Amino acid sequence: xxxxxxxxxxxxxxxxxxxxxxxxxxxxxxxxxxxxxxxxxxxxxxxxxxxxxxxxxxxxxxxxxxxxxxxxxxxxxxxxxxxxxxxxxxxxxxxxxxxxxxxxxxxxxxxxxxxxxxxxxxxxxxxxxxxxxxxxxxxxxxxxxxxxxxxxxxxxxxxxxxxxxxxxxxxxx
Length: 173
Fold this sequence. Notes:
Strand content: 25-35%
Shape: globular
Largest sheet: 5 strands, antiparallel
Helix content: 25-40%
Structural class: alpha+beta
Number of helices: 5
Strand order of the largest sheet: 2-3-1-4-9
């Protein structure tokens, strides 16, 4: 998986079709989509660069807001690991070079079907990263998406995560 997509409950099949159509248009006709056992959550594996996919979907949305009806959030994932604190710690350390010395960061954890302690994860990671923390306006977001026994990790700018509702709202202001 290199994308996590959220959608309204019980509209997963429609969301899958919408996603397939969009990515086919971008040039990926071999997209693998999985409707998870968690309501409103799909994962996808695209051969395209995930952050680039999000950027293109955002452009599409700004151009034709009606063209995207079911995808609510599209989140690029850089690494997928087992949901174990040691694994998360190790992967974050390997990816942390994407945060340059002068950049601030924030750790965001989204947990579903997991009893891992968010506080413990944040404490262990924060010990390893010497950069300044900014909860309000971080340069980078260290995103940890825990979906049961799989965890997706990404280090992203806020603009790399697509919220279709926020994007549509910003257009009407």
